[in-house]
């Protein structure tokens, strides 16, 4: 009986470990795709805000706070320095106190 269990473990264990490794790789691939997608959406929004605010010549306090939070999330996900240049330009804009709707 002990020999049967040993043979069963020797066959089943590598298969089970292989399956677990496959699952982990698949989960990592999914997380990477989600992170990349989120990063790209953040970049698009940051670019749109930058264009809007530089065109009108000022940024609202709440808008700047949102921009900074999105910027930090973008970089935490591995974003590049292109958005850093946008942030620098946004930070140079005058801050105008407005309604929360006027982001």
Which consecutive residue ranges, at least 5 long each, have pLDDT under 50?
A: none
Task: Look at the helices and sheets and give the structural class.
Answer: mainly alpha
How big a fraction of the residues is strand? Answer: under 5%
Shape: rod-shaped
Give the SSE string: HEHHE
Distance between the termini: 73 Å
Major sheet strand order:
1-2
**Could you give a short account of the major beta sheet?**
2 strands, parallel
User: If you compute it from the alpha carbons, what radius of gyration comes out, rounded to the nearest whole angstrom?
Assistant: 24 Å
Q: Look at the structure and give the mean pLDDT.
A: 88
**How many E strands?**
2
Number of helices: 3
- How many structural domains are formed by the residues? 1
Helix content: over 70%
List the helices and strands and how they pair.
Blueprint: H1 2-56, E1 59-60, H2 61-76, H3 82-92, E2 95-96
Parallel strand pairs: 1-2
Index terms:
mainly alpha
Descriptive report:
- The chain is mainly alpha-helical and 103 residues long.
- It has one domain.
- It is built from 3 helices and 2 strands.
- A two-stranded parallel ribbon has the order 1-2.
- It is rod-shaped and about 80 Å long.
- The model has no long low-confidence stretch (mean pLDDT 88).
Short description:
With 103 residues, this protein is mainly α. The protein is built from 3 helices and 2 strands; from the N terminus they run αβααβ.
